Every structure is written in structure tokens, then in C-alpha cells.
Amino acid sequence: MTVDVAVIGGGISGLAAAHELKRRGHRVVVLERQIGTGGNAVSERCNGFLMEHGPSTMNALVPAANQTSHALGLEQTRCDLGDGIQKRYLIAKGRLAGISVGALGFLTAGYLSPLAKLRILAEFLIPHGCDGEDESVLEFCTRRFGREFAERVMDPMVAGIYGGGRASELSVAAIFPMLVALEQKYGSVTLGIMHRAREGGKMPGSRLFSWRNGIGTLADAFARDLGREIRTGVTVRRLSHTPNGFDIQLGESERLRAKAVVIATQAHVAAQLLADVDPEGAGAAEKIQSPPLAVVFLGYPRRNVDHPLDGLGFLTAESEGRNVLGAQFCSTMFPGRAPEGHVAVSAYVGGVRAPDLARLSAAELIDLARTEFRDLIGARGIPAVARVRHWPVGLPQYNRGHGARIKTLGESPQRNAGLYLTGNYFAGPSVAVCLSTAQKTAQSVHAFLSEQEVRASVSV
Asked: Which structural domains are found in the chain, ordered by start?
């Protein structure tokens, strides 16, 4: 069998790339090792509750998110973030501290000390840093905003976004490039934000949405669109060059030929697939860590939870010593996440901070989450529903040096014509960003195939 493009990996990134390539008229096949597609974009209905096993939101400020929702005919089931979100919550000395979601929330709340607030306000007086230095988030934010803000705000924030990542290890240039760019251009993040606001530019932020049946809706829609182009339960054993593209060994004996290949797997799998065809890329991919993560979903009668749950959830600074990285108040975020008279909450456990906790049994994780929720939101009694999802491979960590690793991987087509990579370790782990990255990858593949066709016609 010969195709134009073989997409290895049937997660959101692989499905999005295949969808775009099919739309452009190419013969595509998606090869997925698991029996289902969607990767970690899994939504499950259970007793009237909706559990998101993986990602739970889309960012409408990323154009690809809206474009894809329209293209797949999903707008009728789209739901925007609920209006019950009034505060952001962080843990302070074992209790939840509520902070206004407004721009001045941290300056008006009691979460930070008066000295820390003064230090934030003085950010525009801080000298410009050294260009080209790959600072950690902690280093950059300590230098610009002070140690307390870095440890008590940015550390829990990046842990929530990157599944337990540490601000002291994650590269600020890789995960918050806008902050670095503002300092480089204006000498100050604060002054940069003010300039951008006057110029009408969009600053980092999010307008979140989902669909009535969760993020899994997106994977299902892609699967319907691609139909027979998807092959599940197929293991790619080896990838090798041929004069006209690539030879792909499937299982023990089956082979597939493709003019181009898109590897849309997790980084460690990409490293294995690249070993024979691109050792340099393989070396870069295998350095990307993805520690285990567990999601614990609990549903309670509303009367059994004291907290108003008037936020997205809460985040935890590592210095607090809690067993959960953070939580989401699922039934507040979007409608239809819990039956009438009930609420739903999810706890996230593990990551770089505590990988062993992510490997606990389901029963142990449920007990752990119940204890945390009892202490922090006053959740009492036996949950109406309790589910656990173990992810042995969690979110990729954009540690220092990540930019150089991604540059190496992005140059794979220059070393191997027709070989491309995409995934959540390139530009960010959010679903919307993965869609955007995958579409750009597909456009590059399309340009390559079009050039090949022109060369073939000229030679004839």
C-alpha cells in the first residue's frame, strides 16, 4: 500500500494534521497503536457526570480553535466558560485564598505580603536582563517581580499548566516567550504590557470554551471526518528511507510506503521512531521528560460541599507541601458536568513534584483526593461518583534547553526530506495550540508534496 502521507499517532495533533492534509487533497493514513483515537482527549459520562480524563478547555484566542470547531460542525454544541467564576484560588498556609480575577487581583488581595506587592509595582525599574540567557521561569520572575511572586504565584501556575512542572526547571523562553519578548523590546514586562494595551495588541490570556460532551467531542469529530483513513491497533516497528519516500514496517510483516511521514506521537516514542532515520532528532526527543500524572474525579451532592466553588479551581505552590498539584471545579466551569443538585471536582496528582503518588492505586488516589477536598473545600461524605485515570506518561516538560531541542526536531525535514514532527512538546500542551502546530506542520508537508509533484512533471 502506498499513500502520500503516513501520520504516526492518532492523538489530537495527528488527527488535526491528517484532517488538514486530507482537506488539501492528499491520500492520508493515520496509524495509531491504541484501539481508539484522541490520545489523552478523553471525556466520559458516568451517572450524569462528565469526567475529562485529560484536557478540559479550548482557548478561543488561538484562531485554530474556532476555525476547527466551525469546520467540523461543532458550534451547536459549543459552551463557553460559566459565569460563576469570580475568583482564582491558591493555597496559603493550608487554606484556600480567594483572589479577584481582575487585573489588580494580586495587588488587592491578602495572598501576597505588602513588600511583595511593592516589588511587583517596581518591576519597571529593574534593569534589562542578559539577552540569549535561557532562564528558568523562577529565575526570570524573581528577577523581574521578586521571589515571593515567583514562588507563590508563578510556581503553582506552571505546575497547573505543565502537570506538576517546577518553575525552577522550566524554561521561561519556551513557555512564556511573550514575557521575554516584552522585556527585550521595552526593558520591562510592565511597560511592555502598557504599550501593547495602548496599541490594541492582544496580551496573553484566555477565553475558554468546550463542547456539551467535553473535549472528546473534538477527537470523535476528527475520527468521523477521516473515517477509513484511520487504522487503530497498529504498531509501527521501524521507519526507513526509500528512493521515493519512506518504508514503514507495521507489526511483524506488513509494510506501508509513504512519500512523507508525520510523527505525531509522544516525545519518547518519536525518539524510538527516529533512531534509524534521524539520530540527531532522536537524541533531542529522548531528552524531553514527561512524568506520570493521575486525575481523580469526584462528584458530590451540593449540600455536602461547603465551598462556593466560584472559580476554575485552585493551584498549589510546592512550598505548601500538599499531595495535589491543583484541582478544577468542573461543574462551575461548564454546564452539564454534574446532575442537578450535585457538583464535580477533579484533583491532579504526580508530575515532576511527586511521580510516585501518580502511581498509587485508584483506591489510594481517591482516598488522597477526598482528604484534600475535605480539608480545602469542606467536602463531606462518600462521593456519588469516583473515577481515576492514570497517565504513565504525562505532560512534556519544557525544561531549560527546550528551545534548542525543538529547533533540532524542527530541522528534521532538512536532514530527511519528507519527515516531519508535531505534538504537544513543540509550542505548548493546550489542545488549541496543538491544533495550530499540527496545521502548520500539515501546511509544510503540503508544500513539500506540491514541490515534489512539480519536479516530477518537469522531469517528464
From this structure: 2-39+217-288+398-459 (3.50.50.60), 43-63+73-84+290-391 (3.90.660.20), 112-199 (1.10.3110.10)
